[in-house]
Please model this.
Amino acid sequence: MAANDTIADMLTRIRNSCMARHETTKVPATKITRSIAQVLKDEGFIAEYEEAGEGVKKELVLSLKYKGKNRQPIINALKRVSKPGLRVYSNSKDLPKVLGGIGIAIISTSSGIMTDRQARSAGVGGEVLCYVW
Model:
């Protein structure tokens, strides 16, 4: 487990927890997972996230959100776009629209990690990390 894709790992953990209707899920805390968690929270896909653990073993505990009496997960799908083996970049004019604007694309830009909407309004492009809807 030395060189792994932390983002894909995070998305998979969230995806699995949503399917199993868990309240929370834990992901290893890194700068990038923190930023992605912040974007997901700002966009209303997760309720809350907090850090737990000590030193190297820090984890982010994400509180997942569900809707309705059948507890449908708010997050329908998470799709990794740019992988370590194939990076996907996009300039500000060609940023992807996810499901015609229903979903979000999380972009890693020079001014931090943000949604496709924020990147478009800031006029910056970057690496397309993943789609969420």
Q: What stands out?
A: Residues 40 and 46 are 6 Å apart (CA to CA). The first helix runs from residue 6 to 19.
